[in-house]
From TrEMBL:
The lineage of its organism: Eukaryota, Fungi, Dikarya, Basidiomycota, Agaricomycotina. This is sterol 22-desaturase. Coiled coil: none annotated. The keyword Metal-binding applies. It is an enzyme of class 1 (oxidoreductase). GO terms for biological process: sterol metabolic process. Belongs to the cytochrome P450 family. InterPro entries: Cyt_P450, Cyt_P450_CS, Cyt_P450_E_grp-IV, Cyt_P450_sf. PANTHER family: C-22 STEROL DESATURASE ERG5, CYTOCHROME P450 26.
């Protein structure tokens, strides 16, 4: 360290880049004489001068990049708004969005432009030549750098074409049987638990566990044994915690990232084995019963033109990416779905009426895609519930070149640029009474909600738009429908029920306390 500092004597002139950058800043006088020789100055003054210069440089670069955008006119040295991002709150985000269509912040010297309007958010999502998704820093370590989710441009488009075949209507028809039976098993367990202890309980983990088992079975079928499914579900929480927007960046033992990497290793072992077993099962013939088998079968078809040489590891990484992308968002959507229904008895009554009508009163009838087609109210509710509380409120992107995002502002290359969805989804001109839950707005073909699909950014937009939309909405609809005809559920309100907790996605702060009882059959 000492020798390093020795080389950095203040007798050296500041690099020209630095001088140019500093020329723009109001504290210029500090640097005007920066190239005077200080050869006789003690090293600690030299070090102090360098540190001081770097701190001033940090401020000036921030102000240079920020230009006229709203946002603090200076940034906290080194860490910036780190403290705010450790415990993000909806109120904090809303205050940021209220600053303007575009606003600036800096965290750990990463310059960030936040977009709060529909126009700017869509522009970011639909400008692949200027910006690409940048999952949180830890994501590459946790999901592995070679995972397809980190592909961009043509490579991404080609890979995604293959994966789109896993979400066709034919494939979804296979998955819905799995969803139906697993959901019924879980509801039976929930009711058995409630019979043993009728006190209200948060459904936070209950819903997460259901989603995890459903997804694992949909993706891997019988190829992940019960023991593996339990182990993945138990460890998965570590992955969720490591993927928060801001985290300690090094994978030292005991840190969230370290724990998440260990959890991923366990999951990958089971998922790779599942991919191998799915290939073997399809080689023996038979109809696909899960996504991995569907994938193998699609590749065998004569009409299939894409890649065929997917290794077990690659297939496992895709499943891992789906688990990662689905688990938190779908759980958030489901938990708010329960909360919204329990708090809106009129809506719940309409949803139940539709269920009994389409099922002819038979609550044991397994759900099919054709039945879902006849349940517009259910699906309108799911859509509206996520409009009110979008599970994902923002997705970080990074600029790959200078990005002229508006007439008077260009986001510098290498910045983070964040499209946000909340304002789009609560725009009073598109969604009148936007703070009210009104599923009917989606049932009227001429409503402003339906006339402006561009505003519905719950699943993003552009080349990286969510691949699992149909699967996610269908699963949420199915769970809420079955829960509503098989159970009565009462939401026990607490002072935290309306407060939002952000764990990557949004959740009610009290975890949504529900009191469950079996519902008499019609
Ligand atoms: C309610 C549930 C869900 C919500 C709200 C949601 C939301 C999102 C959003 C906002 C994005 C970013 C889009 C963009 O950058 O434009 C995304 C991407 C993605 N989602 Fe979802 N998602 C959900 C469920 C799922 C499920 C169930 C799966 C998998 C089966 C999934 C897989 C993915 C993948 C793989 C991507 C990245 C796509 C790409 O880069 O091409 N998501 N999702």
């Amino acid at each position: 360290m000492a020798s390093y500092l020795k080389h950095l004597t203040a007798s050296a002139p500041l690099p020209s880049f630095t001088r140019e950058a500093l020329a723009d800043i109001p504290i210029r006088s500090l640097f005007e004489n920066a190239n005077v020789s200080l050869a006789n100055t003690p090293w600690y003054w030299t070090a102090a001068a360098i540190i001081g210069s770097l701190l001033v440089l940090e401020q000036s670069v921030y102000r240079y990049k920020k230009k006229h955008l709203p946002g603090s006119s200076w940034t906290i040295p080194l860490i910036g708004k780190f403290a705010d991002s450790v415990n993000p709150t909806m109120e904090g985000y809303m205050a940021q969005w209220a600053q303007g269509a575009l606003s600036a912040i800096s965290v750990f010297n990463i310059f960030i432009v936040m977009a709060s309007t529909n126009e700017h958010s869509r522009k970011i999502l639909n400008s692949p030549n200027h910006a690409e998704p940048c999952l949180v820093y830890s994501a590459k370590k946790v999901l592995m750098a070679e995972n397809w989710v980190f592909l961009t441009g043509k490579e991404h488009v080609d890979y995604r074409k293959v994966l789109n075949t896993l979400f066709t209507r034919k494939a979804l028809a296979t998955y819905i049987n799995i969803m139906d039976s697993i959901t019924r098993e879980h509801i039976t367990e929930w009711l058995a638990d409630a019979a043993r202890d009728p006190s209200p309980k948060p459904i936070m983990m209950t819903a997460r566990n259901l989603n995890m088992e459903t997804s694992l079975r949909v993706f891997c079928g019988r190829h992940v044994p019960q023991e593996g499914a339990r182990e993945i579900a138990d460890k998965y929480w570590h992955i969720t915690k490591a993927l928060e927007l801001v985290n300690f960046p090094f994978a030292l033992p005991g840190t969230k990232i370290y724990n998440a990497i260990q959890a991923r290793k366990v999951a990958m072992r089971w998922l790779e084995t599942a991919a191998a077993k799915a290939k073997a099962a399809m080689a023996e013939g038979g109809e696909p019963e899960c996504m991995l088998e569907e994938w193998v079968r699609v590749m065998e078809q004569p009409t299939y033109k894409g890649r065929k040489d997917f290794s077990n590891k690659e297939m496992a990484m895709v499943v891992l990416s789906f688990l990662f992308a689905s688990q938190d968002a779908m759980s958030s959507g489901l938990i708010y779905g329960f909360q919204h229904l329990a708090d809106s008895p009129e809506i719940l009554a309409k949803l139940r009426e539709e269920q009994y009508r389409v099922r002819g009163g038979d609550v044991d009838k397994p759900m099919t895609l054709e039945m879902i087609d006849e349940m517009p109210y259910l699906m309108a509710f799911v859509k509206e519930s996520m409009r009110m509380k979008p599970p994902v409120t923002m997705v970080p992107y990074k600029t790959t070149k200078a990005f002229p995002i508006s007439n008077d502002y260009t986001v510098p290359n290498g910045s983070m640029v964040i499209p946000t969805f909340y304002n789009s989804l609560h725009d009073e001109s598109i969604y009148p009474k936007s703070e009210e839950l009104i599923p009917e707005r989606w049932l009227d073909a001429d409503s402003s909600a339906n006339a402006n699909p561009r505003n519905y950014l719950v699943f993003g937009s552009g080349p990286h738009r969510c691949i699992g939309i149909e699967y996610a909405t269908m699963n949420m609809g199915l769970v809420l429908a079955l829960a509503s005809i098989l159970m009565d559920y009462e939401h026990v309100l607490t002072p935290e029920s309306e407060k939002v907790q952000i764990i990557a996605t949004l959740f009610p702060k009290d975890g949504c306390l529900l009191k469950l009882t079996p519902r008499p059959r019609p």
